UniProtKB/TrEMBL annotation:
It is a peripheral membrane protein. It comes from Meiothermus granaticius NBRC 107808. Pfam families: ABC_tran. Keywords: ATP-binding, Cell membrane, Hydrolase, Membrane, Nucleotide-binding, Repeat, Sugar transport, Translocase, Transport. Residues 20-255, 265-510 form the ABC transporter domain. GO terms for molecular function: ATP binding; ATP hydrolysis activity. Its EC number is 3.6.3.17. The keyword Nucleotide-binding applies. The keyword Repeat applies. PROSITE patterns: ABC_TRANSPORTER_1, ABC_TRANSPORTER_2. Its main location: membrane. This is Ribose import ATP-binding protein RbsA. GO terms for cellular component: plasma membrane. InterPro entries: AAA+_ATPase, ABC_carbohydrate_import_ATPase, ABC_transporter-like_ATP-bd, ABC_transporter-like_CS, P-loop_NTPase.
Length: 519
């Protein structure tokens, strides 16, 4: 049995029809026009990135292509021929496969059984397992997989599971391969290996549609970029036209420089947070700094420099070996997050799903979590007061949620992050520590989070802003501290003539600045 084969159009000829055409696609759900007259074209042998903020219509368009949804109007063509896709099997028959961010695999089955799930070859009325194993082994070898067809899927990593999904697509003559945020759970090395494989698939003549909100990935892979906004087609850029400013403006409808709050627009008050000699005796060396009311202090450094560890020490999430914290000039004793909250310190952790949110609980409960005692009398919570708080927070932060009862797990990354911000705003913080607050959210949600941070600072909150994205550190911060190997090694303060730039931050983060000083 030889089901695996190269795409039928391994190298597009001049004038050849596109591998995929979606013409004038519209789709409405109750109360929502998800897509309006959207067209999308992808050619064999190219990687075509599809971008747009959450709610732009990317997933809806691709689910129509995969047969999960039916369009209200429009048509789909594969190599110039109209096709009718009424379900996932129809999509597979015409050479279209979609690999979702959440892998569609059965962990209790073997690799071969997953590849052939639903279309198992038969002989004399029985599943031909030998043929399954032979065909699966052939495609796995071509993909360079380190596991075999009889390996239980439960033993594989997420990256290896993606290989199984790709093997399934190739086994059935995939002409168009859609990958939805495929690197979300991968390490840097796994991501590099995936990129190599995607390029190989492109070179074999497959049309790869790549959905991502990460500009670095788009730069590394894409031959073209198409942008959707609010369910409508905005435009397509060729490789030579792709740049962050242009893509961002297409996605959100305004220039990238308008994202950040202007440092000159805020007045700084008294020192609100003062940290002196705080250390855990291990990862974080004795560290001292201060933040004024109304100031956004950027904390930068390479991954592993100790930024998160320092934040957790201040918040009492990890025990400190020594050091002191003052709030508004008064010493405070912080041995736990409860102590920090009582002192007016809020902390948004870098991993919102594991350390911040209660994913299975309602959005409203996540918002009100820290202040329920404020709405209780004789041990009974006042639901009217809590409801008012939650509704106002949802309105103020523009959280896109069907109702306060919607579980947090069902929200987008950006809206989940805004739930956490709403929880800490409810306590009226004097100091707010934000650890990677825009990680994993789309560009539109980033802009909203930047706006919220600026508004907090304008109201007098002292903000500690930790980020690995240097452009947002530069754009958001009034002053920047840089960490390296657990030490605070540098400060960039425009008030004394310093220039906050990516180059200057990296000079401290990599030790180049210290080398210059010693020289």
């Amino acid at each position: 049995m030889d089901m695996f084969m190269e795409p039928s159009n391994p190298s597009p000829l001049p004038g050849a029809p596109p591998a995929l055409e979606m013409r004038h696609i519209s789709k409405a759900f109750p109360g929502v026009q998800a897509l309006k007259d959207v067209s999308f074209v992808a050619y064999a042998g190219e990687i075509h990135a599809l971008m747009g903020e959450n709610g732009a219509g990317k997933s809806t368009l691709m689910k129509i292509l995969a047969g999960a949804y039916s369009a209200d109007s429009g048509e789909i063509r594969v190599f110039g021929q109209p096709v009718r896709i009424a379900g996932p099997l129809d999509a597979r028959r015409v050479g279209i496969n979609l690999i979702y961010q959440e892998l569609n695999l059965a962990r209790n089955l073997t690799v071969a059984e997953n590849i052939f799930m639903g279309v198992e070859p038969a002989r004399s009325g029985l599943i031909d397992r030998a043929a399954m194993r032979r065909a699966a082994r052939e495609v796995l070898e071509q993909l360079g997989a380190s596991f075999g067809p009889e390996t239980p899927l439960s033993r594989l990593s997420i990256a290896e599971g993606q290989l199984v999904e790709i093997a399934r697509a190739l086994m059935f003559r995939s002409q168009v391969l859609v990958m939805d945020e495929p690197t979300a759970a991968l390490s840097e090395r796994e991501t590099e290996r995936l990129f190599e494989l995607i390029r190989r698939l492109r070179d074999q003549g497959i049309a790869v549609v790549y959905i991502s909100h990460r500009m670095a990935e788009v730069y590394a892979l894409a031959d073209k970029v198409t942008v959707l906004r609010d369910g409508q087609y905005i435009g397509t850029l060729e490789k030579k036209e792709i740049n962050a400013e242009r893509v961002v403006q297409m996605m959100v409808g305004r220039p990238v420089q308008d994202f950040y709050e202007h440092r000159t627009a805020r007045t700084k008050g008294e020192v609100m947070l003062e940290v002196r000699g705080i250390t855990d005796g291990k990862k974080v060396q004795p560290s001292s700094f201060s933040v004024r009311a109304g100031e956004i202090l950027g904390l930068a450094g390479l991954i592993g420099a100790g930024r998160t560890e320092l934040a957790r020490l201040i918040f009492g999430a990890d025990p400190k070996a020594s050091g002191a914290v003052r709030i508004g000039g008064q010493p405070v004793r912080i041995q736990s997050p409860t102590d920090a909250i009582a002192a007016g310190i809020g902390y948004v952790p870098e991993n919102r799903k594991e350390q911040g949110l209660f994913l299975q609980m309602a959005s409203g409960d996540n918002i009100a979590m820290n202040v329920l005692s404020h709405y209780a009398a004789a041990g009974i919570i006042n639901p009217i007061g809590v409801g008012q708080l939650v509704r106002q927070a949802i309105k103020d932060l523009s959280i896109r949620v069907a109702s306060p009862a919607t579980r947090a797990i069902n929200l987008s990354g950006g809206n989940q992050q805004k739930l956490l911000l709403a929880r800490w705003l409810a306590i009226g913080p004097k100091v707010l520590i934000l650890d990677e607050p825009t990680r994993g959210v789309d560009i539109g949600a980033k802009a909203e989070i930047y706006r919220l941070i600026g508004e907090l600072a304008a109201k007098g909150v002292a903000v500690v802003f930790i980020s690995s994205e240097l452009p947002e550190v530069v754009g958001m911060s009034d002053r920047v501290l840089v960490m390296r190997e657990g030490h605070l090694v540098g400060e960039l303060d425009p008030a004394r003539g310093d220039v906050i730039s990516q180059e200057h931050i990296m000079a401290y983060a990599t030790g180049v600045k210290e080398m210059e000083v010693r020289a």
